[in-house]
Amino acid sequence: MLRDPALELARCAMHGVAFVETIVDPADDGFGTFEALPGWLMEASADLRAMVAAEGAGEGAGGEERRALPPLPAVRIAAGVHPHNAKDLTDDLVAALGERLRDRRVSAVGEIGLDYHYDLSPRPVQREAFRAQIRLAKAAGLPVVLHMREAHDDGFAILAEEGFPEAGTLLHCFNLDGAEASRWVEAGCYIAFGGPLTFKRAEEVREAARIVPVNRLLTETDAPYMTPEPLRGTLCGPAHVVWTAAVLCEVLGADTPEARATLLAQLYANAEALLDRAPTPWQKEPSHA
Fold first, then answer.
1. Looking at the UniProt record for this protein, which Gene Ontology cellular component terms does it annotate, in alphabetical order (predicted)?
2. DSSP bridge pairs for 79
3. Of the candidates 177, 185, 237, which has an alpha carbon nearest to the alpha carbon of residue 207?
4. 65: exposed, middle or buried (C-beta count within 10 Å: 0-12, 13-18, 19+)?
5. Residue 139 — left, alpha, or beta (φ > 0 → left; ψ -120 to 50 → alpha)?
6. Could you give the CA distance from residue 220 to residue 78 in angstroms, rounded to a whole number?
7. Ranges of H-type helices in 227-288
8. Whole-structure pTM over 0.90, yes or no?
9. I need a labelling partner for 198 at 20 to 30 A (CA). Which of 92, 112, 192, 251 fits?
10. Contact criterion met (CB below 8 Å) for 79 and 106
11. φ and ψ of 32, to 5 deg
């Protein structure tokens, strides 16, 4: 979905973004990202060298030698069929998805869930696809990344019936109020905030961020959508997460360099614990393909 994934990874490195979770929807894009990712990382290294050289040249003679090449972000994959495409989740695709979950680069099943705003798949079909992928995530020992839009009641009820995965549940790109956030937090979920946290009229989203325990908070971009302020209206990239993180520091009162560093370290630790974990027993088993 990004125009130039390699360039975006290089930009992440330049801005100190150390971890990226990319999304694969096999009903929409197939599994091409799995094959393309090594090439993107190689291209990103070349882009990064060019960026550092250009920055050094701008600083004058010898400037290009003064900055070491920053590391590219670690990249993991969340794979799952989005509720928009639930109508395309056949038994064969479920089986193919299950095999891809054995790839040790995969760290979550998602985005999965319900979208009653667009209703691009019939609601009963969305619910069945959601259930099927919750079960698959639990079998694989992986967390789920949720897309919920105007469907939080049904989504929560389904998770309560199926059982929240022990590996974790991440409510993606949260843009509602504290009352809604509370029940997900009480159920042990992580909450990720993206661009909406920065929107000028979204005080209810900032209210929600204040009630989420700091060890359950993540930041994200939902790139190429939901570009944060002050860049709203432009195409969003993963590196734009720095704007959201800056606003989250303000919202939570991290108003000194030391407090900001502590909070940002906690956010990174949360993402690493949930999404950059060691291979699961499922992933260590031989493929059944």
1. cytosol
2. 24
3. 177
4. exposed
5. alpha
6. 14
7. 241-251, 257-275, 281-284
8. yes
9. 112
10. yes
11. -60, -30
178-186 helix and 203-211 helix, angle to the nearest 10 degrees? 30
Length of the chain, please? Answer: 289
Q: Please give the Cα distance from 286 to 283 (Å, whole number).
A: 8
Give residue 97's Cα distance to chain centre. Answer: 18
Question: Can you name the CATH fold of 5-284?
Answer: TIM Barrel (3.20.20)
- Reported as a single tens digit per residue, the pLDDT across 81-95 is 999 999 999 999 999
pLDDT tens-digit profile of 186-221? 999 999 999 999 999 999 999 999 999 999 999 999
Q: What contacts 141, CB < 8 A, 6 or more positions away?
A: 166, 167, 280, 281, 282, 283
> Which residue(s) pair with 217 in the sheet?
191
What is the SS3 assignment for 121?
A: coil
Residues contacting residue 63 through CB under 8 Å, at least 6 positions apart: 55, 56, 57
